[in-house]
Amino acid sequence: MMLYLKLFLSFFKVGLFSIGGGMATVPFLYELSDATGWFTHNDLANMIAVSESTPGPIGANMATYVGFVTGAAQGGTPAALLGAVCATLGLVSPAIIIILIVAKLLKSFRENRYVNDAFYGLRPASTGLIAAAGLSVAMTNLFSPEVFPLLGINWKGILLAAVLWLLTNKVKKTKSLHPILFIGASALVGVLFGMG
Questions:
Q1: Which of 16, 27, 75, 194 is least surrounded by Cβ atoms within 10 Å, i.e. has the fewest?
Q2: Nearest in space to 154 (alpha carbons), one of 119, 126, 185, 196
Q3: Other CB atoms closer than 10 Å to residue 26's CB: what's the count?
Q4: How far, in Å, CA of 38 to CA of 133, rounded?
Q5: Could you write out the three-class secondary structure of 60-110?
Q6: How far separated are the first and last CA of the chain, in Å rounded?
């Protein structure tokens, strides 16, 4: 029972401080990985890839995955489901609480200059968190000496990223295609060439 409380509280902290969306949770998840050992940095990179490919918020998908895997280690499917629910509820609870408070006090917040200034100031912080998350994911997936033997560079990953960039930015026929097609094709290439 203590594990489920710890999952809830750990993800509650992540949800409380990750302003800016799902990718803003990534730096906190790296810290959580180091602190708890529930998942590795490589697991986190894989979770991000899967979360980007599945419907729903990235942070909630990752919380559900971590809770499920951690619960499963304790004892099968019921424990895994309980772990997934606890982690997910922990992550979304701060947002729900804040939204309820803001909705209650909306009129006074709407006209308050200090609140507007605070939200204006949070924009660069959110941008920084998201940029740090993107850089961490890129470094883990493309440059990792522990995983990739030749100079620690994932040549297949770099080649795939370059091809995707070309197809989405330079080739007129593919530039306007829906992003889900690129995600699916990338997943297929990753499976076929053992990039996961």
A1: 194
A2: 196
A3: 27
A4: 19
A5: HHHHHHHHHHHHHHHHHHHHHHHHHHHHHHHHHHHHHHHHHHHHHCHHHHH
A6: 33
For residue range 79-136, what is the model confidence (pLDDT) as tens digits? 899 999 999 999 999 989 988 887 777 667 667 788 778 878 888 988 888 888 888 8
| Phi, psi at 110, each rounded to 5° | -60, -35
The overall pTM is greater than 0.70: no
> Other C-beta atoms within 10 Å of 97: how many?
13
> Which of helix, strand or coil describes residue 31?
helix
Q: What local confidence, expressed as pLDDT, does residue 146 receive?
A: 61
Identify which of 154, 150, 156 has the alpha carbon closest to the alpha carbon of residue 140.
154
Close Cβ partners of 143 (under 8 Å, ≥ 6 residues apart): 152, 153, 154
- Between the alpha carbon of residue 22 and those of residues 52, 107, 131, 161, 178, the distances in Å are 10, 28, 12, 22, 21
pLDDT tens digit string along 128-183? 888 888 888 777 777 766 666 667 777 777 888 888 889 888 888 888 888 888 88
- For the stretch 28-47, pLDDT in tens is 888 888 898 888 888 888 88
Tokens of 114: 């200090």
49, 54, 55, 59: CA torsion to nearest 10: -40
